C-alpha cells in the first residue's frame, strides 16, 4: 500500500481548515475509509515485475561497465557510462522520447527472435566520431547528412559495442548479437506495434565535457523466452551453480598440480644376497620378462598401464598400450 507524504504547508492548511470548521474531521475520516480505486492504463501494460526490472538493471549495469572499457580503448580517452533508469513503456512513447534525428543501431540477438535498438544521442555520436578522426571530441549535430565514410566509421564502432551486449547477457542466455542496420529517423523504425511494451534502459555517458544519453530498447516479445530466467530464484540457483563450478575447478587444479611417481617395470629377477654383493659394472641379470612382451607401468606403486619399450631420438621411451582396470589379470 502506497503512503503519501504531506508537505508542511499542506499540514498547516489542513489544521487551519479543521480549526475554523471549514472541514469536518468525521467526514474526512469517512472519506479515508472509502476503498480507493487504482487506475490501470491498458494501453501501458506492465508486463515485467519489479524483481525482473531489478535483474535487468543488474545486467545492464554490467553492460555499462563493458561499454566504458570498450569506448575508452577505442576513443583513447576516459569515458564514463552508468545506468540512469530502466522503464517499461509502450513502443510509441519511446519513439516520441528520442530526438527526431538520431543514431539508431538496429540489431538482432540470435537465437532470440525480433529486433532491438541501441539509440545514441547525436551529440555523443559525433563526439565519438571526432575522437576517431583525431579530434578532441567536439560535438556537432548533422545527423541528417551522414557521409558514407562517417556511416562506415560509426557502424564499425557500434558493432563492437553490440558484441559487449552478448557478454553482458551470458549469465541469462547464450546470444549472438549482430548489427543489422543503422537508421537516423525514428519514424522509419517500426520494430513492433505502437502499443507493444518495451524495456528501455537509459544510460548516461560522458566524453570529456560532452554528456548525453544512450538508450537500449528491447521489446517484450524478444525477451519473452528468457523472462523466467530473470527471476530472483533463477539468479540464486545460477549463483549456486557458479559456486559449485568454481569449487570443482579449484579441485581439478589442485589434482593436476599433484606430483606422481611413474616407474616402468622392465621385469624381475631373483638372486642371492652374496651375488648382489659381487655385482659389478657390465654384469648381466636375466629377467623373467621377454622383450616382445608388454611391460607394466606403475603409478605411485600401483599397476596402471601396459606399455612397450622403444626409443625416441636416441632416448629410451615407453609407449602406453592400454590402461589396467581394477581387477585386471594378465592372461599372458
* Count of helical stretches: 9
Strand content: 25-35%
Question: What is the CATH architecture annotation of the largest domain?
Answer: 3-Layer(aba) Sandwich
Biggest sheet character: 6 strands, antiparallel
CATH level-4 homologous superfamily of the largest domain: CheC-like
Strand order of the largest sheet: 1-5-6-3-2-4
Q: What is the string of SSEs from the N terminus onward?
A: HHHEHEEHHEEEHHEHEEE
Structural class: alpha+beta
Distance between the termini: 84 Å
Walk me through this protein's architecture.
- Pfam families: FliM, FliMN_C.
- Its main location: other.
- Keywords: Bacterial flagellum, Cell membrane, Cell projection, Chemotaxis, Cilium, Flagellar rotation, Flagellum, Membrane.
- The chain is elongated.
- Strand 9 and strand 10 form a beta hairpin.
- Helix 3 (50-75) crosses helix 6 (148-168).
- It has three domains: 8-37, no CATH class; 43-231, Chemotaxis protein chec, CATH 3.40.1550; 262-323, SpoA-like (Surface presentation of antigens (SPOA), Roll).
- The model is unreliable at 328-332 (pLDDT under 50).
- It is built from nine helices and ten strands.
- With 332 residues, the chain is of the alpha+beta class.
- 36% of the residues lie in helices and 25% in strands.
- The strands form two sheets. Strands 1-5-6-3-2-4 form a six-stranded antiparallel β-sheet. A four-stranded antiparallel β-sheet has the order 7-8-9-10, with no helix packed on it.
Amino acid at each position: 500500500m502506497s503512503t503519501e507524504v504531506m508537505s508542511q504547508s499542506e499540514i498547516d492548511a489542513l489544521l487551519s481548515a479543521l480549526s475554523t470548521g471549514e472541514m469536518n474531521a468525521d467526514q474526512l475520516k469517512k472519506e479515508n475509509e472509502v476503498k480507493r480505486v487504482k487506475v490501470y492504463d491498458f494501453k501501458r501494460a506492465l508486463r515485467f515485475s519489479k524483481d525482473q526490472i531489478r535483474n535487468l538493471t543488474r545486467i545492464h549495469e554490467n553492460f555499462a561497465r563493458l561499454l566504458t572499457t570498450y569506448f575508452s580503448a577505442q576513443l583513447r580517452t576516459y569515458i564514463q557510462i552508468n545506468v540512469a533508469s530502466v522503464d517499461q513503456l509502450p513502443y510509441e512513447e519511446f519513439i516520441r522520447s528520442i530526438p527526431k534525428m538520431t543514431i539508431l543501431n538496429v540489431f538482432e540477438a540470435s537465437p532470440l527472435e525480433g529486433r532491438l535498438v541501441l539509440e545514441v544521442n547525436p551529440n555523443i555520436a559525433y563526439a565519438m566520431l571526432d575522437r576517431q578522426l583525431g579530434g578532441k571530441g567536439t560535438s556537432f549535430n548533422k545527423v541528417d547528412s551522414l557521409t558514407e565514410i562517417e556511416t562506415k566509421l560509426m557502424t564499425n564502432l557500434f558493432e563492437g559495442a553490440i558484441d559487449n551486449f552478448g557478454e553482458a547477457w551470458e549469465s541469462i542466455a547464450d546470444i549472438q548479437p549482430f548489427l543489422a542496420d543503422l537508421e537516423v529517423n525514428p519514424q522509419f523504425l517500426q520494430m513492433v506495434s505502437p502499443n507493444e511494451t518495451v524495456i528501455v534502459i537509459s544510460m548516461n555517458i560522458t566524453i570529456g565535457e560532452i554528456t548525453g544519453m544512450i538508450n537500449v530498447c528491447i521489446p517484450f516479445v524478444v525477451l519473452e523466452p528468457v523472462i523466467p530466467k530473470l527471476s530472483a530464484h533463477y539468479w540464486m540457483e545460477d549463483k549456486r551453480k557458479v559456486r559449485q563450478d568454481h569449487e570443482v575447478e579449484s579441485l581439478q587444479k589442485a589434482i593436476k598440480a599433484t606430483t606422481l611417481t611413474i616407474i616402468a617395470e622392465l621385469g624381475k629377477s631373483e638372486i642371492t644376497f652374496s651375488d648382489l654383493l659381487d655385482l659389478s659394472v657390465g654384469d648381466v641379470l636375466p629377467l623373467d620378462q621377454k622383450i616382445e612382451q608388454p611391460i607394466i607401468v606403475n603409478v605411485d606403486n600401483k599397476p596402471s598401464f601396459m606399455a612397450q619399450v622403444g626409443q625416441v631420438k636416441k632416448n629410451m621411451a615407453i609407449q602406453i598400450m592400454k590402461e589396467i582396470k581394477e581387477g585386471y589379470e594378465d592372461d599372458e
